[in-house]
Amino acid sequence: MGNHEFCINCGANDLHEGIPCDPESSEQKSKMHNLTITTLSAQDFTDGDQLLLHAAFQVLVDHNRSENLAEYVDLLEHDKVADPAFIADRCPYFNEALVLYNWWTVDRPSRIDPWGEKVLGRMTGEEALIEEDRQYAEDTDMLVRLVKIREILWS
Fold first, then answer.
1. What pLDDT score was predicted for residue 55?
2. Residues ≥6 apart with Cβ < 8 Å to 72
3. Structural domain boundaries of the chain?
4. 40-72, pLDDT tens digit by residue?
5. Torsion over CA: 29, 32, 35, 41 (sign)
6. Is the pTM for the entire model greater than 0.85?
7. Cβ neighbours of residue 73 under 8 Å, at least 6 residues apart?
C-alpha cells in the first residue's frame, strides 16, 4: 500500500502527473465525469435510495440526449446492411432504454403525490401509504430494468 495524493482543486487522484491543476484544460476535462441530477434540489436532503434512483436515471437521460436513442433504434430496425443477429440482439435493449426514458421523463413526473392528495382530502392516510408503497415498488422495478440494460449506455 502506497500513499495516495489527491488534487485539492478537482479531486483527481494522480495530481495531474505533476502538471498544475487546470479544470478548464481539455485534457483534464476529458478525464472528469460530472453528473448533475436535474430532478433533485441541491437545497433539500435526499436519502441514499432516492439519490441512487435519480442518479441512475440521470445517466440514462444524459445518454439519450447525447446519443438520441430513438434515432438509433430507427436506424437499427431499417438498416438492411447490419447483421440481423446484431439487430435482434441489440434492438430490444435500445427499445427498453426508450421505454425507461419515457417513463422517467413523462410518466413518473405526472404521478400523483399521495400525501398531497391526503392533505387535499382526496385520500385517507392508509390510501396514501398504499399508493406511496406502490410507487416505490414501481421505481424499484424500473431501476432494476435500467441496470439490466446498462451495457448499452456507451458513447
1. 94
2. 94
3. 1-34, 38-152
4. 888 888 899 999 999 999 999 998 888 777 676
5. negative
6. no
7. 91, 94, 95, 98
